[in-house]
From TrEMBL:
Name of the featured protein: Diguanylate cyclase
Superkingdom, taxonomy of origin: Bacteria
Length: 805
């Protein structure tokens, strides 16, 4: 069955009553409409001028922010002074104007000369604008309008100062933004108003014979044309805004609303008659629906339904209401689930929520936040002062500054890191981020919502990272980077008084070459401990790198420094348990009127240290090698006897071979030191009773190279370094380490090779028994020409046979 709509019922009743009034309505409308519409157009024109002013104000504010931001850069200040091209390359690229939506940027020095102008290549208007604004009369920042060649510009002028505002201005920054007049033509789309802005002289203002609120206008039946004069940046009334309002249908519709108010009064009598009929078929059903909705509002029970029998629109509306309530119930369920997810997320991340009501001075603290900061209280609301009292004293003032900045409108967002202290004194670092979510009619913040995250672990990691970046990994002392930072501070403080002590470890290279870098690192750590024990707590000790250390001593006299130097040397001399002599070269210097920079003071201290090193280094190296030789004898009880036998046999063989005294002296020294490199071989290999493995033998063979490096480190022994290196080379070229052949092998090395091999064969070792002379002679003859020099073997056997007889 077809539904009879309510509007049809109302139409049937109303039409019968309205027909007599149509004639009267037509006459009233005709006489009153024209005046109303004209008044409506005038009011719309006023609002359109306000809209134009708002657009101009917005653009002027944008230009103000940009010009003041650029003008307060220290880089801009220095650019006007120095005209540094790096500033142009870094800040004034080809797309800078486009990104800032500007026509031009002009940098002018204090004398009015243009330092640099960045402007649109197609519309060059910089000089015209500068000539128009009279830059020589500018005393303070200014923003305003200019019209040039039919175009409207917003011009901003600011004095240039550095970012700290300590210096006076050295010039001006002018920025120019083209204000496209077509921007205002949006008024035509909204209220059918056309806009034009031009120099006031181009409008015949006297033709506008009517004046209202500084607006001159004239009108006809179709439109209102109005003009308002604006001041340019110089304060002159030379810019005119013209608006033409053609009116629109909206005005007619609003007039009809006004007209119908009067018309309804005439219909009251008819409505009274119609009420009985409407009440029966419409109003009772409408009241039932209305009562049901009110009950839903009070009870908030959106699971209920309403039933309105019938087939009219009220029945359909009731069905739609039931459907709407069902959808709301589903949506509410989704909101509940979303809220639960949010709460679980906050619990999972352990983040806290802080809600600050500014005027009420009330801070809401979520349970998660109370747990985070150790706030043992049942209440969730505290005052701002009570909350800040939980902040670490060193952070409280900074936190208040952040809040005052956001409350005073300087920022929309809040972002700060600070420390909270619970009732037990435990400290928690938090990251506090928030935003203004409510403002009053004056734009002042009413409410700030924030989240707080526990960043204690991150802060600890950052502190550890900072410590490591300024520490030497091996010794735990400060490093070069830290000292450079200290030196910068000293150079910036002319009144500071200090000494710089330079220290250099003697013989570190010998130790590294002999015992390996692990032992060298152990030596450096020992030196670091000596320096730490010798210095007072406020002295700064640093390892510069390698074998160099530096000590910075402030506010102490030279007597302290001399005593410190003696104390360090005494501690080095008193060390025991080392296979080598531990010593340091030391030099110091102080800041004077002539040497006031740390780099110069350190250079002088380094020079004095180097002189000290030259006087002690050679004796230190010799003492170190003697110590190493003693260590070798202690490591292997047979080595000293072996060395004595080789020395005696080598001298006999050398004399038989006709060596001069110089060579005999070298041979004697070589017989003592040829196995010095074994001091660097691990004892488990050197003293192993059985056969060496391939890997162990490879280590054992390195003793020739270790011995070479030890000898090279001292001028007393460097002349036999090559002989030490080659004393295990073979005559046929199959020896080690370099595979030398024949007479490529130094003569003294060939002598030691023969004598050493004979002594090893004829004397007992941990890994073998001694062989008799017959066996030794046989081996020497068989290896002659392969392992040994044949001539040397022959002469050596002759010596041995003579000794037997």
């Amino acid at each position: 069955m077809k539904i009879i709509k309510i509007k049809y019922k109302a139409i049937v009743i109303t039409v019968l009553s309205v027909i007599p009034l149509i004639g009267v309505t037509d006459i009233i409308f005709e006489h009153s409409y024209s005046g109303y519409v004209n008044n409506r157009k005038l009011e719309e024109t006023k609002k359109s001028f306000d809209a134009v002013s708002d657009v101009i104000t917005k653009e002027q504010n944008s230009v103000t922010r940009t010009v003041e931001d650029w003008a307060k850069w220290t880089d801009t200040y220095e650019f006007i002074t120095n005209s540094d091209k790096k500033y142009i390359a870094s800040n004034l690229q080809d797309d800078t104007l486009k990104n800032l939506d500007l026509q031009a940027m002009i940098f002018i020095n204090k004398s009015g000369k243009i330092v640099y102008a960045k402007e649109d290549k197609e519309k060059k208007i910089s000089k015209d604008i500068i000539n128009s604004v009279h830059i020589e009369n500018i005393k303070k920042n200014r923003v305003g309008l200019m019209v040039q060649n039919g175009n409207l510009y917003v011009v901003g002028i600011s004095t240039v100062t550095p970012s700290d505002n300590q210096n006076i201005s050295n010039g001006f920054l002018i920025i120019i933004k083209h204000l496209d007049i077509s921007t205002f033509n949006i008024l035509k789309r909204l209220v059918n108003v056309e806009a034009d802005i031009e120099e006031a002289s181009k409008f015949n203002i006297s033709s506008y014979d009517k004046l209202v609120e500084n607006i001159r206008y004239k009108q006809d039946k179709e439109s209102i044309e109005a003009v308002k004069v604006l001041k340019n940046i110089n304060g002159d009334d030379v810019i005119a805004v013209k608006l033409i309002n053609f009116g629109d249908k909206k005005a007619v519709n609003e007039y009809f609303i006004l007209f119908n108010i009067h018309f309804i009064i005439l219909l009251i009598a008819i409505i009274a008659i119609d009420f009985i009929v409407l009440n029966k078929y419409s109003l009772k059903r409408l009241k039932k629906l209305n009562d049901f909705i009110e009950e839903i509002i009070v009870s908030k029970d959106i699971t209920r339904t309403i039933s309105l029998p019938g087939k009219d629109e009220y029945a359909m509306f009731a069905a739609l209401t039931n459907r709407m309530l069902k959808e709301l119930n589903l949506a509410y369920k989704g909101m509940r689930e979303q809220n639960e997810r949010f709460m679980m997320l906050m619990e999972a991340t352990n983040d806290g929520v802080l809600d600050y009501s500014v005027k009420e001075d009330r801070v809401y603290i979520s349970n998660e936040l109370k747990q985070l900061i150790g706030f043992n209280s049942e209440k969730n609301y505290v005052s701002e002062r009570e909350y800040v009292s939980r902040v670490h004293l060193e952070c409280a003032e900074r936190l208040r500054e952040h809040y005052h900045n956001i409350i005073n409108g300087n920022s929309e967002y809040f972002n700060a890191e600070y420390r909270m202290i619970d009732q037990l004194g435990n400290i928690t670092w938090v990251l506090h981020r928030g935003k203004i979510v409510g403002k009053d009619e004056n734009g002042k913040p009413l409410r700030i919502i924030s989240t707080l995250v526990n960043i204690t672990d991150r802060k600890k990691y950052e502190e550890e990272t900072l410590f490591l970046s300024y520490s030497d990994k091996l010794t735990g002392l400060r490093n070069r980077s830290y000292m450079e930072k200290q030196f910068q501070a000293l150079d910036s403080s002319p009144k500071s008084q200090y000494y710089i002590v330079m220290c250099d470890v003697n013989g570190l290279k010998v130790v590294n070459d002999t015992f390996g870098h692990k032992e060298g690192d152990h030596l450096l750590c020992t030196i670091a401990n000596i320096l730490t024990e010798s210095c007072e707590q406020d002295d700064i000790i640093s390892r510069l790198g390698g074998d160099e250390f530096i000590i910075l001593i402030e506010d102490k006299d030279e007597e302290y420094v001399k005593n410190l130097q003696d104390k360090i040397k005494i501690k080095c001399d008193s060390l025991f348990g080392y296979k080598y002599k531990v010593s340091m070269a030391i030099g110091y210097a102080s800041k004077t009127e002539e040497i006031s920079e740390t780099e110069l003071v350190m250079g002088l201290a380094d020079l004095r240290m180097y002189r000290n090193k030259l006087t002690e280094e050679e004796s230190t190296r010799s003492a170190t090698i003697e110590s190493l030789l003693n260590t070798l004898h202690e490591k292997h009880s047979e080595t000293e006897e072996h060395t004595v036998r080789i020395k005696e046999l080598s001298i006999q063989l050398g004399e038989k071979l006709g060596l001069n005294q110089e060579k005999l002296d070298e041979l004697k020294l070589l017989s003592l030191l040829h196995d010095i490199g074994k001091v660097g071989i691990p004892e488990n290999i050197l003293m192993k009773p059985g056969k060496l493995t391939v890997e162990e033998w490879a280590i054992m063979k390195t003793h020739t190279q270790i011995g070479y490096r030890i000898a090279k480190s001292s001028s007393d022994f460097s002349h036999i370094a090559n002989e030490i290196l080659a004393h295990h080379e073979r005559y046929d070229g199959t020896g080690y380490p370099n595979g030398l052949k024949g007479e490529e092998i130094p003569l003294l090395s060939r002598i030691i090779n023969v004598v050493d091999s004979f002594d090893v064969m004829t004397n007992k070792r941990a890994y073998k028994e001694a062989f008799n002379l017959e066996y030794a002679f046989k081996e020497l003859n068989e290896c002659s020409g392969t392992q040994f020099d044949p001539y040397i073997v022959k002469e050596f056997i002759d010596i041995l046979q003579e000794n037997i007889r």
